[in-house]
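User: I've been trying to design a sequence by hand for this structure and keep getting stuck. Would you show me what you'd pick, starting by listing the structure so we're on the same page?

Assistant: Good idea, let's start from the same input. This is the structure you sent:
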């Protein structure tokens, strides 16, 4: 399922660590490994277009896995 969401990037210290996008509505998505390093900055706000991957499980299990297709940085801390 393709989605467009706006939210804040967070680093979660679970296992070896995981990146998350927490939307303005409070929904948490786990960002699939391999995302652009320009996106992965704690506290950064971004608009993200991606694919929810229902065929992948992770050890962090912090929310649905989001494969980022494109993004636009709105603000950076």
């Amino acid at each position: 399922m393709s989605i467009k969401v706006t939210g804040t990037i967070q680093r979660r210290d679970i296992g070896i660590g995981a990146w998350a996008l927490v939307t303005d509505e409070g929904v948490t998505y786990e960002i699939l490994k391999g995302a652009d390093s320009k996106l992965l900055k704690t506290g950064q706000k971004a608009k993200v277009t991606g694919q929810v991957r229902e065929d992948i499980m992770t050890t962090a299990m912090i929310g649905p896995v989001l494969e980022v297709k494109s993004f636009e940085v709105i603000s950076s801390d």
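That's my pick for every position. To get oriented when you compare it with your attempt: The CA atoms of residues 31 and 66 lie 5 Å apart. The chain has one domain: 2-75.
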